[in-house]
Structure formats: structure tokens, C-alpha cells
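Lab notebook page, bench 4
Experiment: in silico fold of construct C2
Operator: M.H.
Input chain length: 263 residues
Purpose: comparison with the prior construct
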Amino acid sequence: MNHNSQHHWSFDYNYGAQNPQFKQELIQTLDGCYKDTDARDTRTRQAITHIYNILPNYWRGYAGGDAKETLSIGTVIVERNKQDGLWNYSVQYENTTSGENLRMQFRCSDEHYRPLADSWRVDVRNSGNDEYSELMCEGYLAVDSEVRLRINGAEIIAGTVDTSAKLTCNWALFDVIPALAKTIRASGNVIELALLEDLEQLRVKSRLGFLESIQTPFPLDGYYLYGAGLLPAYWWLDADRNIAIASTFFETLVLREKIGGNT
């Protein structure tokens, strides 16, 4: 690996005299993850956990007045286990700078596209102390293909999914992309998805395609996610079929720890 070259443009957020440096933090995080994994028992298990550091793409918007030893502004934990033919997901997103704390729970069928099954739930908390500091959202796919949400007791229709489409969630892409990677590369075509972003916003015209392969800072294969209403996102798959880097417009998730085998 070559740590001295520039990062790929999709996650190159190293700016001048910025300290801590984005590039250094990203490399150290991945280095630590891979060394720790090599030292541990990596036998395949049905329960799988990936833990990511959240790095801000634009540090000046988060830095404040105090110096920090680390660039990370929070953690994402993606846990899933297979039971009775379904994958049970629990995703925790905590941004210590903004005070935002999300917990998302949902179930998916055991297919490459990970289509949503049954109902799902999102619990949101922030650091405020008023009546708006907590929100609970539950959702389900109705028989008429309507995506229905109950937010703090009030029910709304988020949109309608085509009957032929398989509705998945952006947090299931940590498994969808590894499962579809060979198909995407072999065909050279994009794959169309119906996506429920953060289990709340319906994006019916989303496209997943191959970007390119890189060797710096590690051997990685890149995939892009574009779509109407979606900010572009870039997902980088490592040699063990783990999502090592997931970069959106405002932040980049970097793999810190992995527990259990691949899905």
C-alpha cells in the first residue's frame, strides 16, 4: 500500500494545515481495524457487527474553538443477525458534535437486494431538553405498495413503490453492495433500487454502479449510489468484502472494527 499518494477524489478531504488530518485519521483507523482483525478469531458467525468512525468532510464546520486529538465526531454501529430466514438489523448512529442519536431497527429478506420485510422503527434523540428532543417513527409497506409512516402517533404516506421493485434501506447497503458487486462489475450496468433513506425518505429511482478500483491507501473497489433526491454516495469494498469506506456529501464512515463473518 502507498500512504503517501493522494486519496481518491470521492473521499479526499485533506485540507492544508488542518489538524487532525483527514488522510492520517482515515489510514490509522483502517490500519488499526485490519491489524486487530488479523489478531482475533475471524470464524464466520451469523451475528455480524461493523463499527465505523464518522469523519467530517468539512472540519471547519465542526471544529469549534477547542483542539482535538481525533477527527472523529461519532460512531455508527451496524449489527445484524439471521433468524427464521430474515436478517434483523439494528443500526446506531451517534454524532457527539451535533448531539444527534438515532437507532434504526428493521428486518430484511435473505436476498441480495435485502428487501424490507415486516415493519421498521426509528428512534431519534438530540441534546435538547424540550418537547422536540425525541421522535419515534414506525413504518410498514401496505398491501397497495404504499410506504406508510407513523410519526409520534400521526400516520402519513411517504410514497408508493412499484410492485416489481424491491424496497431496501441505505443501511442495508453494507450487505447489498458486497452481494451484488460481482454482478455489477460483470455486466457493466447499473442496478436500479427503490431506497428508503434512513427508513423515512422514499427514493424510488436510485442507481448503484461500479466506480473504479484503487490501490491507495488500500486495495479497494468503489461503487456509487446516485438517484433522484439523493446526495451522491461512494462505497468502497475491501478484499474481504467489507465496506471499508462510505462517503456522502457531509461525512465519511471509516471501518474501525468488524466482528463476525461476511453475509
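Observations: DSSP finds two helices and 15 strands in the chain. Residues 107 and 158 are 19 Å apart (CA to CA).
Next step: discuss at group meeting.
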